[in-house]
Amino acid sequence: MTETSETTRYTVAVIGGTGPQGKGLGYRFARHGHDIVLGSRAAEKAEVVATEVNDRLADVAGAGTARGLANADAVAAADVVLLAVPYDGHDELVASLPLAGKTVISCVNPLAFDKRGAHGKVINNGEGSAAESAAELQPEATVVGAFHNVAAPALWSEDEFLDEDVIVVGDSVEGKQVAIDLAASVTGRPGVDGGKLRLARVLEPFTAVLISINRKYKTHSGIRVTGLDAH
Amino acid sequence: MTETSETTRYTVAVIGGTGPQGKGLGYRFARHGHDIVLGSRAAEKAEVVATEVNDRLADVAGAGTARGLANADAVAAADVVLLAVPYDGHDELVASLPLAGKTVISCVNPLAFDKRGAHGKVINNGEGSAAESAAELQPEATVVGAFHNVAAPALWSEDEFLDEDVIVVGDSVEGKQVAIDLAASVTGRPGVDGGKLRLARVLEPFTAVLISINRKYKTHSGIRVTGLDAH
């Protein structure tokens, strides 16, 4: 992480910004100086949550600002877009947004649940992921995957940072750097470059493992990458 | 982990016991008091590696013993079998072994490599894994998945324990407990119950993410599960 990237202040549109993951990540970004534009189907709903975030950050020195807009307007107001939407309806929504030219970070987890617990939905016969679908639907966007495995309740907590790592995958070095920078708002250290976009096929369903662990051990688990002391 | 399971001394047959993963895990198990039977196609080759392990453990108080046998004989000599074989030829080998009634731990990673790096092989159109294949081929064995993500060079090092967690998946609580116990030989703490066997679909290709991280950061990375301080 260079000094330049450490001090970059981003404006991030959070699509799905009123859901727990989007609201929680947006709060973390804004808490550490980035500006966020929460997007929702209804601008009014996004404005309510933006006010909630701003109220929470009123006493935090150096915090960024939150505002709420309808999804497409939120995208238009930012260069970086976080997709934090449910997988149901994901493809239609992503296709409908003006994402050309944007850096798009997908934290979408295509999961299914049955009596045996959580597991990954099979996409494109095992050769796809939500992040890859977004990249195919929006060929002029730079799509990366990140923030799949952070638990929403921990994001909305008062803890300064979460004790875990954010793994970032993508086919664009510049795109990954944005997510690597933003990860520091969540974990206190840069995100970990985990390789190419197709490895989102692993990061997305890994959340099912964490959900299983959470159920068994009554906790909010995360993952930390060991062996990286020097980075 | 109960006091009973903490003190259980297992005899573990390691199929693929002359490869780096099998040899390294066998060494760890024996170093912490379990007996190992390294299996190979040729018994002589397994004996050579067993001698190497025994020599290394000569000064370790409480260490178990290592011996080498042909694969099928190694299986016959143990109640617990670690499958540490390459994915190429995996199904044929597993089908050929006398695994009925055994607890079988698969650490097999079906990976492919191309110019974009490592990635997971697609098994059964995304609805399979090496561990599930083993369970289907050996319906009278108790198959669990574990030890997928530990790096072979770290296993064969002099470090007392590896700074990472072993995640265990399986459909049998008793079968998982064996791997959870054995994990303590590697990491210094019990393995983490990660849910049902089908989640091996995630743990196996996760190794591709770690390989990507290793290449980028010039390290031997592992994963640690956070949020489990109490367990």
UniProtKB/TrEMBL annotation, chains A, B:
Gene3D superfamilies: NAD(P)-binding Rossmann-like Domain (3.40.50.720)
Organism this protein belongs to: Nocardioides caeni
Biological-process GO terms, alphabetical: copper ion import; NADPH regeneration
SUPFAM superfamilies: NAD(P)-binding Rossmann-fold domains (SSF51735)
UniProt name for this protein: NADPH-dependent F420 reductase
Example of a GO MF term: oxidoreductase activity, acting on NAD(P)H
Occurrences of domain Pyrroline-5-carboxylate reductase catalytic N-terminal (ranges): 11-110
InterPro entries given in the database record: NAD(P)-bd_dom_sf, NpdG, P5C_Rdtase_cat_N, STEAP_metalloreductase
GO terms under cellular component: plasma membrane
Keywords: Oxidoreductase
Pfam families, A to Z: F420_oxidored
